[in-house]
């Protein structure tokens, strides 16, 4: 293909290709189909940063042991309205779709369903999951706490995660409303997409390893918070309501100086 040539691939073929790649990596067919559905959903919505371009990264993560194709997913604790899931480093889509189905069952019985997931991995486009609820005439909200890749407002150190959050509500006559956003100005995967396309990123998205502004996605290491102190504050609160509650704090080791920041390498 020429550099600027665009090739259109049918969604069905793209799902099958994605599913087959994951299956060859060792993922059970049902889980591979779930992961492929979520990945291609992002492409179909025009969010290519969270689509099939992530496949090489996912396969590499499996090879080095960061993501498991056959995790031991367990419900550790459960009440009529809530459950706590140990994901054992599962692919994000696999365990989150599982969790959403469980909490929707609870919501039908009790009016609300809530799940906490510990030790999961990249969820992809977060909007997919609350939309599952909206399509079943429920409101849904999801967020995930990630590794530190974003600087707190006024700092040049990646001491926060750009914890993304998504909310969806149903509608009577129209399609459900969906909000899907990171607490950084741009999601980290958008840097990967810029690298893949060989293009610059907009000013104000990221800093380099020395804390200087950059438009080069290859030099970008630290994301900037959306809305300055507002993005920082939202990230901290989502951390408290997420990873801290499940006793798996993502920011604490960096704050204590026990491990180097993750950054956007």
Approximate helicity band: 25-40%
Could you tell me the mean pLDDT? 92
Order of helices and strands: HHHEEHEHEEEHEEEHH
Low-confidence parts: 261-265
Q: Rounded to an integer, what's the Rg over CA atoms?
A: 18 Å
Supply the helix-strand structural class: alpha+beta
Shape: globular
Straight-line distance between termini:
29 Å
Count of strand segments? 9
Please give the structural blueprint:
Layout: H1 11-24, H2 29-44, H3 55-63, E1 74-78, E2 82-90, H4 92-110, E3 114-120, H5 128-134, E4 140-143, E5 165-169, E6 177-181, H6 189-197, E7 206-207, E8 213-214, E9 222-223, H7 229-241, H8 252-255
Task: Provide structural commentary.
There is one protein chain. The protein has about 260 residues and is of the alpha+beta class. It has eight helices and nine strands. Strands 1-2-3 form a three-stranded mixed sheet, with helices on one face. Strand 2 (about 80-90), helix 4 (about 90-110) and strand 3 (about 115-120) form a beta-alpha-beta unit. Helix 4 packs parallel to helix 5. The two termini are about 30 Å apart.
List keywords for this structure.
single chain, 265 residues, alpha+beta, three-stranded mixed beta sheet, three-stranded antiparallel beta sheet, 9 strands, disordered C terminus
Task: Compose a concise summary of this entry.
This protein has 265 residues and is α+β, with helices and mostly antiparallel strands.
């Amino acid at each position: 293909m020429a550099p600027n040539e665009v090739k259109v691939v049918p969604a069905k073929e793209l799902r099958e290709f994605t599913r087959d790649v994951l299956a060859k990596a060792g993922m059970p067919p049902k889980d591979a189909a779930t992961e492929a559905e979520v990945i291609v959903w992002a492409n179909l919505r025009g969010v290519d940063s969270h689509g099939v371009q992530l496949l090489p990264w996912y396969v590499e993560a499996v090879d080095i042991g960061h993501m498991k194709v056959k995790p031991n997913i367990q419900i550790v604790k459960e009440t009529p309205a809530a459950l706590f899931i140990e994901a054992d480093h599962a692919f994000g889509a696999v365990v989150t779709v599982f969790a959403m189905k469980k909490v929707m069952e609870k919501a039908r019985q009790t009016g609300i369903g809530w799940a906490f997931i510990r030790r999961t991995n990249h969820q992809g486009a977060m909007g997919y999951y609350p939309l599952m609820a909206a399509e079943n005439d429920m409101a849904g909200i999801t967020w995930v706490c990630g590794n530190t890749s974003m600087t707190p407002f006024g700092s040049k150190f990646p001491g926060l995660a750009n914890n993304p959050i998504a909310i969806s509500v149903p509608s009577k006559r129209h399609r459900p409303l969906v909000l899907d956003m990171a607490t950084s100005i741009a999601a980290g995967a958008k840097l990967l997409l810029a690298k893949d396309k060989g293009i610059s990123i907009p000013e104000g998205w990221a800093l380099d390893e020395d804390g200087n502004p950059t438009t080069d996605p290859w030099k970008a290491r630290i994301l900037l918070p959306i809305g300055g102190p507002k993005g920082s504050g939202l990230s901290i609160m989502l951390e408290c309501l997420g990873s801290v509650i499940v006793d798996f704090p993502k920011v604490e080791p960096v704050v204590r100086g026990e491990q180097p920041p993750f950054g956007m390498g």
